């Protein structure tokens, strides 16, 4: 009887198959559901960006770079981190491409500050529009160490705007602040 039990047990074991490990239908359903959720979130963020741009449509287009800006007084390369309403470091301005982060080449001339951005719209901050230059730690979703961001406050239309820049060599920020604030003081004295 023992040998018959062994033979029967061996036959039963040989016929058994392992259970399916993956339920492909459920897995595909979860992946499709997750992709739909990601697409919905992306679409909502895009709609929010467009809505914010529509709310800021009254903001005039920034000045274009002049053909001959004059002799460069200072220049730097780095990152443009965006623009916000002055004093409201989370209120990003997206109208006219001012909310697009990009590489930047800043050049200070007698005309003002030229903001050249590859892949994004270039613009000029006219000398007469400059109000303040300072070092700060954050602007619209970008927070750095204290003094790690060069922030230029300028008047555009009826709106005061803060634009944030981070130089490749942050040691040059202090020179920009000193030079720009001296330039702003002489411009205000002439008004």
UniProtKB/TrEMBL annotation:
The entry's keywords: Membrane, Transmembrane, Transmembrane helix
Top-rank taxon: Bacteria
InterPro entries assigned: PH_bac
Transmembrane regions: 28-45
Keyword Membrane among record annotations: yes
Domain PH residues, every copy: 60-180
Listed name of the protein: Membrane protein
């Amino acid at each position: 009887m023992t040998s018959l039990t062994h033979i029967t047990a061996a036959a039963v074991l040989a016929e058994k198959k392992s259970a399916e490990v993956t339920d492909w239908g459920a897995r595909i359903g979860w992946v499709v559901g997750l992709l739909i959720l990601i697409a919905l979130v992306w679409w909502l963020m895009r709609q929010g960006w467009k809505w914010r741009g529509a709310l800021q449509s009254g903001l005039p287009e920034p000045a274009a770079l002049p053909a001959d800006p004059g002799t460069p007084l200072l220049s730097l390369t780095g990152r443009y981190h965006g623009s916000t309403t002055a004093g409201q470091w989370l209120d990003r301005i997206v109208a006219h491409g001012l909310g697009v982060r990009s590489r930047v080449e800043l050049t200070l001339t007698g005309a003002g500050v030229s903001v050249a951005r590859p892949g994004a719209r270039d613009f000029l901050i006219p000398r007469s529009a400059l109000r303040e230059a300072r070092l700060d730690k954050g602007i619209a979703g970008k927070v750095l160490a204290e003094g790690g961001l060069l922030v230029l406050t300028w008047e555009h239309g009826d709106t005061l705007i803060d634009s944030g820049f981070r130089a490749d060599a942050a040691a040059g920020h202090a020179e920009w602040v000193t030079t720009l604030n001296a330039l702003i003081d002489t411009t205000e004295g002439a008004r």
